[in-house]
Task: inverse folding
């Protein structure tokens, strides 16, 4: 999308102060790669992404990215209490939830693996941060710059793309992308349209960990013309007028910092694989979500 702002980074290593200083957001949404604790939590279904520890997720500076507005977090059963604690830690009250009921192409329930029961739904908790009327926040009136990651596609005289040149210089798996400055207009909180959207999504099951497109329609209807941020985003999640942060937003391989870690140490910083939390080179070569 022409009006999206993808930022291709490992979220545990990203310098969030750049984004914090550039703007605030009306809505933040994230689908964390929760670390699974049991030996066989998915009943033999392989996970196609790496996981993060609870501490790494809790350490995200959500409270600094938003002064007022909504926070949406996709949760799994084992992380309900942790998610509730995170909402409190970051200064939010849980006000609602959105339930995605998964269907097959024939509009039947799409049942899948579960530890005790078969699962046919996912839950997204909705939190709201309210401002203190006695101490309202102030916002900069000057435009700021945020840097987005875009693929390098221009060819040189030898017919090589800049991405290919960069991979030759930095090694296989290097991020084939560069930074482009984007001017952000001064932030002003957008008014919400509460009580309009439904809390149930009934749509077809997607690929592993992919969420329904309807969730974006709900967010954009709840806060029209708002400023939206998605953390742990993927290339298929990119949308106009959203800032999308994650290590899969370009589809060009690992972010530069992850590629360097792989080349030097055979592992990706903070990525965990399996119940034991191990990180192997073979696993890290596969795309992870950080």
Result:
């Amino acid at each position: 999308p022409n009006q999206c702002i993808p930022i291709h980074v490992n979220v545990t290593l990203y310098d969030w102060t750049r984004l914090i200083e550039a703007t605030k957001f009306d809505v933040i949404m994230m689908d964390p790669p929760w670390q699974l604790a049991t030996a066989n939590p998915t009943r033999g279904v392989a996970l196609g992404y790496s996981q993060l520890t609870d501490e790494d997720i809790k350490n995200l500076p959500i409270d600094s990215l938003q002064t007022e507005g909504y926070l949406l977090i996709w949760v799994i059963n084992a992380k309900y209490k942790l998610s509730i604690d995170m909402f409190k830690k970051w200064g939010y009250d849980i006000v609602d939830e959105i339930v995605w009921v998964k269907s097959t192409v024939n509009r039947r329930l799409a049942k899948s693996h579960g530890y005790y029961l078969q699962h046919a739904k996912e839950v997204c908790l909705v939190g709201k941060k309210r401002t203190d009327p006695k101490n309202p926040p102030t916002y900069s009136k000057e435009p700021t710059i945020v840097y987005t990651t875009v693929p390098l596609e221009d060819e040189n005289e030898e017919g090589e793309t800049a991405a290919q040149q960069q991979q030759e210089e930095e090694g296989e798996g290097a991020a084939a992308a560069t930074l482009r400055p984007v001017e952000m207009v001064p932030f002003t909180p957008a008014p919400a349209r509460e009580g309009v959207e439904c809390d149930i999504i009934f749509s077809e099951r997607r690929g592993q960990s992919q969420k329904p497109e309807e969730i974006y329609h709900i967010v954009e209807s709840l806060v029209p013309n708002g400023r939206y941020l998605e953390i742990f985003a993927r290339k298929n999640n990119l949308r106009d007028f959203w800032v999308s942060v994650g290590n899969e937003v370009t589809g060009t391989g690992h972010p530069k910092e992850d590629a360097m870690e792989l080349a030097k140490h055979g592992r990706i910083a903070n990525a965990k694989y399996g119940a034991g939390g191990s990180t192997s080179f073979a696993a890290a070569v596969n795309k992870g979500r950080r």
In short: The beta strands are 5-8, 27-30, 69-75, 93-103, 121-129, 144-151, 177-184, 200-204, 228-231, 242-246. The two ends are 22 Å apart (CA to CA). The CA atoms of residues 206 and 212 lie 7 Å apart.
